[in-house]
Design goal:
The chain is α/β, with parallel strands linked by helices. It contains 27 helices and 20 strands. A five-stranded parallel beta sheet has the order 1-2-3-7-6, with helices on both faces. Strand 9 (376-378), helix 16 and strand 10 (404-406) form a beta-alpha-beta unit. Helix 12 (296-316) packs across helix 13 (318-329) and helix 17 packs parallel to helix 18. The N and C termini lie far apart (82 Å).
Length: 665
C-alpha cells in the first residue's frame, strides 16, 4: 500500500466512523473521494489552519456538500480548530460538524453547500473575484493576489441546471485559476445514473472552453500530475474527471447506492477496515499519520512569506495596500454615510418624477463613485434593470480589468457566483434581473440569507406596471415570498429619496443579504421633512399625518404610496383623520423598538388598509382582522400599465372606498 493510500484511508476511517456514530449521513462519497482529497490537500492546497481567513489562501469548495465528512476529516487532520470530539458529534445539535458544511459554523469552510451545483456556482464567483482583484491590485513583482480556487463536485452537481450556467460563463471568461475535480462514480440516490445521466461530460466541458483531463480517481500520482497540468493552463478553467468507486473499500457496498446516504453498518465497517488494512479503533489516528497530514507548519510559512511580500508592497504602494486591507476587511469608508445622507436631502430638495429603477441607477452612480468594491452585473438586462452606472467598466474575457459583469441569461448562476465573490472578499457584488425572474435565482438568494452574507440583489419591473408584456412577466407573489426568507431585507421604495436611503441601508448591512424592488414606470415624489428622510431607514415611517389620533391608517409601499397619499387627502376633505405610513422595508420596521412601532401604528387604531400591487399574504400582520388589503391575489393581463391599475382597483377612488369600508367595521 502506498503512502498516498494510507493517508487517504485516514479520511475513509474518520468518515465512516462519524456517520456510523451519528446513525446518519453519506459515507460513500468521502470514501470514494479520499484519494482526490489527499492529492489536492497534501500536494497543492496553500492554506493556514491557524488562520483560516488568510487573504491569499487557496479556496476549496465542496459542492457535493452531502460528503461533509470529507471536509471535516480534512480540516481535522490538517490542523484546524476541529477536534476528534467535534467529529464524534457529527450531525448533532449545536455541533461544529453539521450535516452539510456551513459557512460561519466550521473554521475552514468557505461556503455553505448542500443544494447540489451551488458550490460549483460559488466557485466561479470565488475565481472571478481573485482574477479581478489581481488585475486591480497586483504590480510587477508584487502578486499579492495569487491563488487558486478548487472545487469538488459530483454527478448530481452536473445534473443540476446551474452547472451549465456557471461553467459556460467560467469558460467564456477564461477563469484559468479555477480547477474542478469531478467525482465521476456514476451512482446517485436512485442507483446507476446510466438511465438518466448519459452526458459525455468531457465533450460538454470542451464545448465550454475548459481544459479537460480524465484520470483514475484512486491513483494519487495521476491526480497530482493532472492538477499540475491544470495549473499550467492560465487561459482556461480545468476539469479533472476522476473515475472513482463510491464507497471505495467497503467490500459489499462499494459501487452501489447502498453506500450513498446511509451508515455502512458495524459489520460492513469491520470488513472495510480489514479490506483497507486499517487496524485502528474508531476515531483513532496514529501520530505519524497526523504528522504527515498536518499543514500547520507549511501554512504558517506560506502566510509569512506573503506577509513579507505585502509589507514590501505596502512600503512601495501605501495607498493601494490600505485600500486592499479595507476592502478585504469589509469596512466602508468612514465618511460614506454622511455623504449619502446629504445626497438624499439634496434629492428631496430637487423633486423629480422617476421610475425607481432610474432612481436606482442614480444611486449606483453615487455609491459607485465612492465604493470601488461595488461590482455589478445583470442577467442580460442591463438596459432594463439600469444596473450600469458611470463607474461601470465591463469585465471582458481574459481581461478582468472592469467592475461590471455581463452574466448572460443566467439568473441562478449569477446569484450563486455573486455569493462566491462576496465570500472571497474584496467586493460587494450586486446583480439585477426582473423581479419575476427572482424565481430562477431563489435558492441562491436563500443561501445568501442562510449564510448571513450581504449580497445585493436588484429586481426591477416589480408589478403589473410591466404592462404589455403580460402575466408571464408581471410579478404577483414574488415580493411577498421574498419577505418570507429569514435574514433577507426586501426594500420597495416609493421614489428617488427612499431609493437613495434604501441603497445606503443595503450597503451598510453586514449580517445578511438585501434586495431592492423597483418600478418600470415613473413615480411621483412625496413631500417630506428632514426627520422623515431619517426615518426611512427604519423601514416604515409616518409620511402624512393628521391632528390627534387617526381614524384610519393607510400602509403602502413603492408605486402605491402616492395612491395612499392622495386617497388620504380625499378622505380628509370629508373630515376623516387619516395617516399614511410608507413601509419600504417590513423587515427593518419589524426590528425597531416596540415604542417606535406603536408610535407609527398605534394598536388602538384598528381601521387600517394596506396597499400594494401584489399578493396580500404578508400584510395581515399589520392590518389585523379588522383591516383591509388592496392587493392582487390573481395574475395580471397584457395591456398598458395604466389600464391594468384601473382594472384591478388601484385608483384613488377605490382606495377611498376600501378605506371607508375599513372605517365602517
Amino acid at each position: 500500500m502506498s503512502e498516498y493510500q494510507q493517508l487517504a484511508n485516514a479520511i475513509r476511517a474518520l468518515s465512516m466512523d462519524a456517520v456510523q456514530k451519528a446513525n446518519s449521513g453519506h459515507p460513500g462519497a468521502p470514501l470514494g473521494m479520499a484519494d482526490m482529497a489527499e492529492a489536492l490537500w497534501r500536494g497543492f492546497l496553500r492554506h493556514n489552519p491557524k488562520n483560516p481567513k488568510w487573504a491569499n489562501r487557496d479556496r476549496f469548495i465542496l459542492s457535493n456538500g452531502h460528503a461533509s465528512m470529507l471536509i471535516y476529516s480534512l480540516l481535522h487532520l490538517t490542523g484546524y480548530d476541529l477536534t476528534i470530539e467535534d467529529l464524534q458529534q457529527f450531525r448533532q445539535l449545536d455541533s461544529k460538524t453539521p450535516g452539510h458544511p456551513e459557512y460561519g459554523e466550521v473554521p475552514g469552510v468557505e461556503t455553505t453547500t448542500g443544494p447540489l451545483g451551488q458550490g460549483l456556482g460559488n466557485s466561479v464567483g470565488f475565481a472571478l473575484a481573485e482574477a479581478m482583484l489581481a488585475k486591480e491590485f497586483n504590480r510587477d513583482g508584487f502578486n499579492i493576489v495569487d491563488h487558486y480556487t478548487y472545487v469538488f463536485m459530483g454527478d448530481g452537481c452536473l445534473m443540476e441546471g446551474i452547472s451549465h450556467e456557471a461553467c459556460s460563463l467560467a469558460g467564456t471568461l477564461g477563469l484559468g485559476k479555477l480547477i474542478a475535480l469531478y467525482d465521476s462514480n456514476h451512482i446517485s440516490i436512485d442507483g446507476d445514473v446510466k438511465n438518466w445521466f448519459g452526458d459525455d461530460t468531457a465533450e460538454r466541458f470542451k464545448a465550454y472552453h475548459w481544459q479537460v483531463q480524465e484520470v483514475d480517481g484512486h491513483d494519487g500520482a495521476a491526480i497530482r500530475e493532472a492538477i499540475k497540468k491544470a495549473q499550467e493552463d492560465k487561459d482556461h478553467p480545468s476539469i479533472i474527471i476522476c473515475h472513482t468507486t463510491i464507497g471505495k473499500g467497503a467490500p459489499n457496498k462499494q459501487g452501489t447506492s447502498a453506500s450513498h446516504g446511509a451508515p455502512l453498518g458495524d459489520e460492513e465497517i469491520a470488513a472495510t477496515r480489514k479490506a483497507l488494512g486499517w487496524d485502528y479503533p474508531p476515531f483513532e489516528i496514529p501520530e505519524d499519520i497526523y504528522n504527515k497530514w498536518s499543514a500547520v507548519e507549511a501554512g504558517a510559512k506560506a502566510e509569512q512569506e506573503w506577509n513579507d511580500l505585502f509589507a514590501k508592497y505596502k512600503a512601495q504602494y501605501p495607498e493601494l495596500a490600505s485600500e486592499f486591507e479595507r476592502r478585504m476587511s469589509g469596512e466602508l469608508p468612514v465618511d460614506l454615510a454622511a455623504k449619502a445622507k446629504a445626497w438624499a436631502q439634496s434629492l428631496q430638495d430637487n423633486p423629480a418624477k422617476l421610475a425607481t429603477r432610474k432612481a436606482g441607477q442614480n444611486a449606483l452612480d453615487f455609491f459607485g463613485a465612492l465604493l470601488p468594491e461595488l461590482a455589478g452585473g445583470s442577467a442580460d438586462l442591463a438596459p432594463s434593470n439600469l444596473t450600469m452606472n458611470k463607474a461601470s467598466v465591463s469585465v471582458l474575457p481574459h481581461e478582468f480589468a472592469g467592475n461590471y459583469i455581463h452574466w448572460g441569461v443566467r439568473e441562478f448562476g449569477m446569484c450563486a457566483a455573486m455569493n462566491g465573490m462576496l465570500l472571497h472578499g474584496g467586493f460587494r457584488p450586486y446583480g439585477g434581473t426582473f423581479l419575476i425572474f427572482s424565481e430562477y435565482a431563489r435558492n441562491a438568494i436563500r443561501m445568501a440569507a442562510l449564510m448571513k452574507i450581504p449580497t445585493l440583489f436588484v429586481f426591477t419591473h416589480d408589478s403589473i406596471g410591466v404592462g404589455e408584456d403580460g402575466p408571464t412577466h408581471e410579478p404577483i407573489e414574488q415580493t411577498a415570498t421574498l419577505r418570507l426568507v429569514p435574514n433577507l431585507d426586501t426594500w420597495r421604495p416609493c421614489d428617488q429619496v427612499e431609493t437613495a436611503v434604501a441603497w445606503l441601508q443595503m450597503v451598510e448591512r453586514k449580517c445578511g443579504p438585501s434586495d431592492i424592488v423597483l418600478t418600470r414606470q415613473g413615480l411621483e415624489q412625496m413631500p417630506r421633512t428632514s426627520q422623515q428622510i431619517a426615518d426611512i431607514a427604519k423601514g416604515g415611517y409616518i409620511l402624512k399625518d393628521c391632528d390627534g389620533t387617526p381614524d384610519l391608517i393607510y400602509i403602502a409601499t413603492g408605486s402605491e404610496v402616492a395612491l395612499a397619499f392622495h386617497a388620504a387627502e380625499e378622505l380628509a376633505k370629508e373630515g376623516k383623520k387619516v395617516r399614511v405610513v410608507s413601509m419600504p422595508c417590513c423587515e427593518e420596521f419589524d426590528r425597531q423598538s416596540a415604542e417606535y412601532k406603536e408610535q407609527v401604528l398605534p394598536a388602538a387604531v384598528r381601521a387600517r388598509v394596506a396597499i400594494e400591487a401584489g399578493s396580500t399574504t404578508t400584510w395581515y400582520k399589520y392590518v389585523g382582522l379588522d383591516g383591509k388589503v388592496l392587493g392582487l391575489d390573481h395574475y395580471g393581463a397584457s395591456a398598458p400599465a395604466a389600464k391594468l391599475f384601473e382594472r384591478y382597483g388601484f385608483t384613488v377612488e377605490n382606495a377611498v372606498a376600501v378605506g371607508k369600508a375599513a372605517l365602517a367595521k
